[in-house]
Amino acid sequence: MVAKNDDQFTTTRKFILTRFTQFVYDNILRQSYDNTNLIDRIKYRFLNKLFNFFIKYDPLITSDIAGFVFTLPFSHKLPFILKDYPYYSSNIARIAKYVKEKYADLKVIDVGANIGDSVAFLRKEEFFPILCIEGDEQFFSILEINASSFTEVYIAKQFLGQETKRMYVVSTKLGGSGNLQEDQNSTQIVEIKKLSDFIKQYSVFENAKMLKIDTDGFDCKIIRGALSFLNQARPVIFFEYDPFFLNKQEDDGFSIFASLGNMGYNKILIYDNFGRLLLSVNIDNLDLLKEIHLYFLGRKSYLYCDICVFHSEDIDLFEVIRESEIKFFTNELSNN
């Protein structure tokens, strides 16, 4: 009887703690700081102290992501980013909507799926099968929870790279983002696979017409490890381009444009890391691309860009999306 009472006490304590951490997270997310209001300042500082206390233990909470209830770590910054930058991640969903109009059997591969948040944005616009690939143990366990709310969302635990190998790494996490750094002195070993090899296990996605990559510096290496898949499927590629993280991975990054150009890719849309359209450019305009690379170099990931690349077979798709994006942001800016 004592053991049963102890279990009930533990369950009750966990329930109360979960509700309290959720309360703190929700209120700090909603809080609007008013420097002129004494009560507001006191409340903000108190909540902020509680927030900094709980973030060390990083319990799981829930939050609204694109209209869906998602589980995420307390330390995850995504809800705060969405609060301050409403266009964040919405671009990939708008692009996918138009890709679906051209390719009715669209399938999407999401590399670096994290907690599955891209699924929320994509499913808000359209329905199609999605393969989420995530190598980090913590993020993958949460991805499992979130993916279970959707149909035809497949998940796979795997790190991808330029070649298939085992690698000694140091892993770090900050604000919901994970990073791997090769380190021969580390005791942590991960198995890296090429996307072209790995995708053979998921034959239904071997001709996926859209590939999204967000892996904090491994993006260009993953593209190089996907060349046979890219030559076969020729998908629209949406990937993070961050010279700071590329340098940490000892990857020049810039050579990826020539590699993609040699495979028949020729049109690019470039967004800033907050989801706002910057410009469009031909992939052979290396002078302009070099200037963009230099602009983001040394920004220490506070600023970087997302790049969407279209194959020559999809010039029509590029033109439709480019015009649509210009119209979207023209309307948004004129209404604000």
Give me the secondary-structure topology.
Blueprint: H1 2-30, H2 38-55, E1 60-65, E2 68-73, H3 78-84, H4 90-102, E3 108-111, H5 117-125, E4 130-134, H6 137-147, E5 153-157, E6 159-161, E7 165-174, E8 177-182, E9 188-194, H7 195-198, E10 210-213, H8 219-224, H9 227-233, E11 236-241, H10 243-248, H11 256-262, E12 265-272, E13 277-282, H12 286-296, E14 305-311, H13 315-334
Parallel strand pairs: 3-4, 3-10, 4-5, 6-9, 10-11
Antiparallel strand pairs: 1-2, 7-8, 7-9, 11-14, 12-13, 12-14
Helix pairs in contact: 1-2, 4-5, 4-13
Quick structural overview:
The protein has 336 residues and is an alpha/beta fold.
Q: How many helical elements?
A: 13
Binned strand content? 15-25%
First CA to last CA: what distance? 63 Å
Give the tally of β-strands: 14
**Strands of the biggest beta sheet: in what spatial order?**
5-4-3-10-11-14-12-13
Shape: globular
The helical percent reads 40-55%
Q: What is the makeup of the main sheet?
A: 8 strands, mixed
Category from helices, strands and their pairing = alpha/beta
What does this structure look like?
The protein is of the alpha/beta class. Helices cover 44% and strands 25% of the residues. The strands form 3 sheets. An 8-stranded mixed β-sheet has the order 5-4-3-10-11-14-12-13, with helices on both faces. It has a 4-stranded mixed β-sheet with strand order 6-9-7-8. It has a two-stranded antiparallel ribbon with strand order 1-2. The longest helix is centred in the N-terminal third of the chain and has 29 residues, at 2-30. The chain is globular. The termini are far apart. The model has no long low-confidence stretch (mean pLDDT 91).
